[in-house]
Amino acid sequence: MTIPDHRMAERIQAVKGMNDILPPESARWEWFEDKVRALMRRYGYQGVRVPIVEPTALFVRGLGEVTDIVEKEMYSFTDSLNGDRLSLRPEGTAGVVRAVVEHSALYDGGKRLYYIGPMFRHERPQRGRYRQFHQVGVEALGFAGPDVDAEVILMARALWADLGLADVRLELNSLGQPDERRAHRDALVRYFEAHADRLDADAQRRLHTNPLRILDTKNPAMQPLVEAAPKLMDHLGEASLKHLDAVRAVLDAVGQPYRINPRLVRGLDYYNLTVFEWVTDQLGAQGTLCGGGRYDGLIELIGGKPAPAVGWGLGIERVLELLAQQGLAPPPRAPDAYVVLGGAAALPAAAAAAETLRAAGLAVLLHAGGKDGPGSFKAQFKRADASGARFALILGADELAGGEVSVKPLRGAGGEQQRVALAALPDWAEQVRTP
Ligand code: ATP
Ligand code: MG
Questions:
Q1: Are 100 and 106 spatial neighbours (Cβ–Cβ below 8 Å)?
Q2: Which of 89, 201, 342, 362 has its CA 20 to 30 A from that of 379?
């Protein structure tokens, strides 16, 4: 027989790249999410909640087989009960589009939607890059015009303002339409073929598989060649240029600077026309806070009636990191009152008083003692001070006998200690409530 020993059980740790968010950090998240929800209300965007697990086929189709995400970053598995191929969502757009198509949600016109939630990508964890991370996303579905492109771009700008963030730049580009991209691609191949002697080995390999990727070369010797290569912008037709100009005109009208970045392409195949990123120089290589664009082809690709769409995804961890870096923090949220008890006998009255105050809108901590009661006043006041509460509410034997509580201002909240009748607590709450 083995004798159980008293060593602690071996610890199980969180999965690498997946983080716990504990207080006080969680308060920053809630503050951020409150700002996001208020923003969405102001712009008339409604929340959607879709599953975290989707059929793998949705992302393969929606993102494209040869994207980094689908090729090597997805958490995919077989449902052991029925053999289905499933994936943890690596991004939010495909799921939202699936849901909208499945429920014919566009039958009565366009929809402005948003979500907040976790995404999963098997990447190398580092600052600003995790395996479970969180995004806010907006999707404006069923609208074809440049007005909504500008609208979603400006929503991100409004969020930076609401958060107090500085130094977030806007980069903008147009990917045109698929036929324009094909014409550009053909011109690129002809151009690089004409200069085959100047291509490095990498570029030669990519020439016929993915010539666009040659433009991303890090090889300094290739830079002059790449700089002079045909530009997609020069292959855009009148309609595409008009769309871009209309977006620019709105940005100009609100005084939002931007840089046209012809290298900005987005990883995903289904983007067309407007693409943009909000970037910062303060987060090193993980400087993209928010990226998005128009994806008019996706809804049809996922089996819906063709409909245009535009949206963005924003990395919450990166935004919070930048906030911390800029010294921006939510206002502290201490309780209004901490209830201190003279002994176990005071518990029913104390708990009832705390409930009354909470119902009146105050944040109240009732001292949590042990099996043998609440403990000494001294120990309780130490807790009350540490909680940051503005008032201690004392229910000793005296107060109990008189149907009252003593209210003691803490941390220089000002005023004298006073007695308040239990029945008068709602009035007292009214007096001390902060907006
Ligand atoms: P990157 O170029 O940084 O890999 P991406 O193009 O893969 O970004 P998107 O798919 O557009 O990113 O996602 C939108 C946003 O989500 C990014 O701009 C970024 O802020 C955030 N994000 C993407 N991947 C991660 C990750 N692994 N960890 C934390 N945030 C992420
Ligand atoms: Mg990525």
A1: yes
A2: 362
Angle, CA of 116, 283 and 118, to the nearest 5°: 20
Cβ–ligand 1 distance for 318 under 6 Å, the answer yes
Contact partners, residue 159, CB within 8 Å, separation at least 6: 35, 36, 39, 314
Identify whether the C-beta of residue 112 lies closer than 8 Å to the C-beta of residue 106: no
Residue indicated by tokens 């535009």: 310
Ligand nearest to the CA of 288: 1
| pTM for this predicted structure | 0.92
pLDDT tens sequence across 138-176: 999 999 999 999 999 999 999 999 999 999 999 999 999
CATH 3.40.50.800 residue window(s) in the chain: 337-432
Distance CA 117, CA 204 (A): 41
Q: How far apart are CA 175 and CA 274, in angstroms?
A: 6
Q: What distance in Å separates the CA atoms of residue 185 and residue 336, rounded to the nearest whole number?
A: 64
Interior CA angle at 357 toward 351 and 362, to 5°?
125
Distance CA 27, CA 136 (A): 17
Ligand 1: atom nearest CA of 319 is 20
Q: Are strands 111-120 and 46-47 parallel, antiparallel or unpaired?
A: parallel
pLDDT band at 1 (very low <50, low <70, confident <90, very high): low
Separation of alpha carbons 152 and 78, rounded Å: 37
Q: Which of 21, 114, 288 to mutate to test the pocket of ligand 1 (most atoms within 8 A of CB)?
A: 288
Name the CATH topology of 337-432. Rossmann fold (3.40.50)
170 Cα distance to chain centroid: 18
pLDDT of residue 348: 96
Say if ligand 1 is within 6 A of residue 121 CB. yes
Torsion of CA 22, 23, 25, 30, to 10 degrees: 100
Question: Where on the phi/psi map is residue 234: left (φ > 0), alpha (ψ -120 to 50), or beta?
Answer: alpha
CATH 3.30.930.10 boundaries in the chain: 25-176+236-325
The CATH architecture annotation of domain 25-176+236-325 reads 2-Layer Sandwich (3.30)
CA angle 9, 13, 14 (to 5 degrees): 150
Ligand 1 pocket residue status of 17, Cβ below 6 Å: no
**Centre of ligand 1 from the C-alpha of residue 267, in Å:** 10
Asked if residue 65 lies in contact with residue 49, where contact means CB atoms within 8 angstroms, the answer is: no
- Rounded distance from Cα 346 to ligand 1 centre (Å): 54
Q: Name every residue whose Cβ is closer than 8 Å to that of residue 306 and which is 6 or more positions away in sequence.
A: 296, 299, 300
